[in-house]
UniProtKB/TrEMBL annotation:
GO molecular function: serine 3-dehydrogenase activity
Key words of the record: Oxidoreductase
Gene: sdh
Name the UniProt record assigns to this protein: Serine 3-dehydrogenase
InterPro entries cross-referenced by the UniProt entry: KR_dom, NAD(P)-bd_dom_sf, Sc_DH/Rdtase_CS, SDR_fam
Gene3D superfamilies per the UniProt record, alphabetical: NAD(P)-binding Rossmann-like Domain
EC number: 1.1.1.276
Membrane among keywords: no
Length: 246
């Protein structure tokens, strides 16, 4: 399985950042890709550039909508990537509406996506389910309790999938990046461009393409190989709290 020409892939959160780069990389490796996100016009424009790709309007937080949108579609490569963070306020100052947004997207969104796509892969005895975790699923940093909790949950979901559905030909992976330069910080800081740009000042952050390349690598390993957990730090990061800037 050194190329993906026989594969049918779903990428959630494919309208930007890691998801967009992953959709592009999977398509370049030959997969037919469904690009899903809420901003339909964006996924539509990206899909139009890719051979065999299609766009899907999808809000992963809406379990009924996810079930309806994915009913009757079969994939053998699912990248559950849609996710976001909101703010870096201390927990005691947090906004419950934002907590719900983060948990509904990062946790329930992954569950909804997997629930709507896994059974046909199990029936076929083949497929890859790749979750976008984070180093925030391994360490907790100040102001990150809720986002880190959501990514710790992604790691638990990955481990739960291995327990509940492992050994039946479907491979499960979690890709856990450190800092990647995307719209992530702009979303986290609610559109504050200056604050978002400062996150990456003097740092060679990972690129979305770095992460996408690792996802293609995971999906193209021989069937006997299941890359379980892949952690990709930016070289300047010693931990989630220690960063060396130029
Ligand atoms: N950037 C980093 O430093 C970093 C590090 C580790 C892990 N990650 C993880 O990587 C994933 C991708 O993040 P990114 O950095 O590429 O951020 P990004 O550029 O902001 O992209 C986030 C994507 O998620 C989609 N999305 C958000 N809410 C959604 C929803 N309810 N339904 C469907 N799609 C939704 C967005 O599309 P729409 O707005 O069009 O729906 C967008 O395509 C996330 O899970 C994030 O937690 C990021």
């Amino acid at each position: 399985m050194s190329d993906l020409s026989q594969r049918r892939a779903l990428v959630t959160g494919a309208s930007a950042g890691i998801g967009e780069a992953t959709a592009r990389a999977l398509a370049a490796a030959g997969a037919r890709v469904t690009l899903a996100a809420r901003r339909f016009e964006r996924v539509q424009a990206i899909a139009a550039e890719l051979d065999g790709a299609e766009a899907l309007a999808l809000d992963v937080t809406d379990s009924a909508a996810v079930t309806a949108a994915l009913a009757g579609r079969e994939f053998d490569l699912v990248v559950a990537n849609a996710g976001l963070a909101r703010g870096v306020e201390p927990l005691q100052e947090g906004d419950p509406a934002e907590w719900s947004e983060v948990i509904d997207t990062n946790v329930k969104g992954v569950l909804n996506t997997v629930r709507a796509t896994l059974q046909p892969m199990l029936d076929a005895g083949r497929g890859d389910v790749i979750l976008l975790g984070s180093v925030a699923g391994r360490q907790v940093y100040p102001g990150g309790a809720v986002y880190c909790a959501s990514k710790h949950a992604v790691r638990a979901i990955y481990e739960g999938l291995r327990q509940d559905a492992g050994g039946r030909g479907v491979r499960f992976s979690t890709v856990d990046p450190g800092m990647v330069k995307t719209d992530f910080s702009r979303v986290r800081f609610r559109g504050d461009e200056q604050r978002a740009a400062a996150v990456y000042d003097g740092v060679d952050a990972l690129t979305p393409e770095d992460v996408a390349e690792s996802i293609v690598w995971i999906a193209t390993r021989p069937q006997r190989v299941n890359v379980g957990e892949l952690v990709l730090w930016a070289s300047a990061q010693s931990s989630t709290t220690k960063l060396t800037r130029r």
